[in-house]
């Protein structure tokens, strides 16, 4: 009877992890859908920033083709960095900064980035609880007999953990 109770609890926790991952994917899709509109708006003002716009497009495609937590995390972090560059370039174009479409897209994208950050945190919290469960007695016995394996956390690359250097 204890085996069944523990097994069912592990199933619930594994499903929570999968649901948390699905929430990250929902927000990544929302960001994916916003980016073409943002790029097109910027193109009209900053057409000569072709390389940057191509990098944003490539990064967007990398997120959508990524498989698994680690690959998705890496691609998503690269996309975030290219978007920061895009917004930095937009600062050089006063007409673009005042464009209502650009402002709304920027607001929507920032809102989505916040939702992605929350979804990542929720996912990692859920994975941590699941991993603790499958590694502690007595659940670790049921987990090993039933094939429950450790899940990966959504991690930030070392380069993005460092404090950016600001120079004036």
Automatic annotation (TrEMBL):
It is found in: Membrane. Coiled coil: none annotated. InterPro entries: LemA-like_dom_sf, MamQ_LemA. It comes from the Archaea. GO terms for cellular component: membrane. Pfam families: LemA (PF04011). It is a single-pass membrane protein. Keywords: Membrane, Transmembrane, Transmembrane helix. Belongs to the LemA family. This is LemA protein. It comes from Methanosarcina mazei (strain ATCC BAA-159 / DSM 3647 / Goe1 / Go1 / JCM 11833 / OCM 88).
């Amino acid at each position: 009877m204890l085996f069944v109770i523990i097994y069912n609890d592990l199933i619930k926790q594994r499903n929570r992890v999968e649901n948390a991952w699905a929430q990250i994917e929902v927000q990544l899709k929302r960001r994916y859908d916003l980016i073409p509109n943002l790029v097109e708006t910027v193109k009209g003002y900053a057409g000569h920033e072709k390389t940057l716009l191509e990098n944003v497009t490539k990064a967007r495609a990398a997120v959508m083709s990524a498989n698994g937590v680690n690959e998705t995390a890496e691609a998503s972090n690269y996309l975030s960095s290219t978007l920061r560059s895009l917004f930095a370039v937009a600062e050089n174009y006063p007409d673009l900064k005042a464009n209502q479409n650009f402002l709304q897209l920027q607001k929507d994208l920032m809102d989505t980035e916040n939702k992605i950050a929350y979804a990542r945190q929720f996912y990692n919290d859920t994975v941590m609880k699941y991993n603790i469960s499958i590694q502690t007695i007595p659940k670790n016995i049921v987990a090993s007999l039933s094939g429950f394996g450790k899940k990966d956390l959504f991690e930030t690359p070392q380069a993005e953990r460092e404090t950016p250097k600001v120079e004036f």
